[in-house]
Amino acid sequence: MINISDLTRRGFLNIGAAAGASLLLPKTGLISSARAAAPLPAVAEEDAVIAWGYVGPTSDEGWTYAHDLGRQAVAAAFPKAKTLFVENVPYSADASRIFRQFAAEGANMIIANSNYGDFIYDVAKRTPDVAFYECDGRNPLDNLGTYYVAHWYPSYIAGVAAGLMSASGKLGYVASFPVPSVYSGTNAFLMGARSVKPEATLQAIVINSWFDPQAAAQAGTALIDNGADVLFGIMDEAAYLQVAEQRGAKAVMWNTDIRRYGPQAYISSIVVDFNAWYVEQVRRRIAGEWTPTEDILPIGSGVDRDAWGETVPAETAAQADAIRDKIMGGWSPFEGEIKDANGNVKVAAGHRMTEVELYNWDWSIEGVTGL
């Protein structure tokens, strides 16, 4: 059932559907589906315990910081509820131990702000009376939902600005791991750049971490040494922005506005906002309305581009923002024909990639190297 007034008020869509069903909403970029599970029982606000497992530190000014702002929004909206969090949850059996401990402490909802795979899946399966959410997850249960952001749209928009501002046409990307969020980011960014500079290319360097300032700085330095004059990435800190500032290059960042670390280099950032979405999930859990959903938060609500940096020319900003307006109106740049890095047609002419395909993008387009 779709309640249009609720959708408008909350700034994102929550669509009930049969198990496994999905819906593409071109005007927002959001896809949402719900499993045919019975809602978990209501919880009195004073008995509610909501716990977060964070992949990084809350002080990163990036991904984890943005999620913790969402936790703080929940605490403000439900002052009688208790919120818990653990930082730097490792990708190991220790993650399972932390999630089990949350449940032992009475958590009614447990949220992981990264993909923990079996480490959260196995715990959720053993505690069916607890609601779970896994960011960037892909293996839902009747009590385990998933959520993410449609970052490929603002990445394309930022790519347009990068293409207009790059003199060399060589772009660099500091990558965490070769995972779909990286492929969709690099591909979207280069596609945006190539829409205004067809000869543009992008080199990626994988550092096997979400938060490693030293490795990110080294990767940014190497990319500039190889000719890149605009950097992009998916890091949870500002290291490669600082490198770009020192070397006279430009940079597009992720998560939050961190321009103060490189005001001359800063083009924009892919900014995320989970506040409203977190508050709504907790409201549903307390009210006894919660069933797991698989949500991708749309551009303009859960994710967007940051305000342009001070050195971005007005005409560049205007041209990129015109593309944003088209996307907000329902246009998508992700329509075939699109070839992979080996020249094979992966998206046929006339086919518009769905949000599910964009979310699960696991190959590089022509012009991307290093992944």
Automatic annotation (TrEMBL):
Q: Which residues form a coiled coil?
A: none
UniProt keywords, alphabetically: Signal
Ranges for domain ABC transporter substrate-binding protein PnrA-like come to 50-290
Q: Which InterPro entries match?
A: ABC-Purine-Binding, PnrA-like, TAT_signal
Q: Does the keyword Repeat apply?
A: no
Instruction: Give a yes or no for keyword Oxidoreductase in this entry.
Output: no
Q: Looking at the Swiss-Prot or TrEMBL record, what is one Pfam family this protein matches?
A: Bmp
A GO cellular component annotation here is: plasma membrane
Q: What is this protein called?
A: BMP family ABC transporter substrate-binding protein
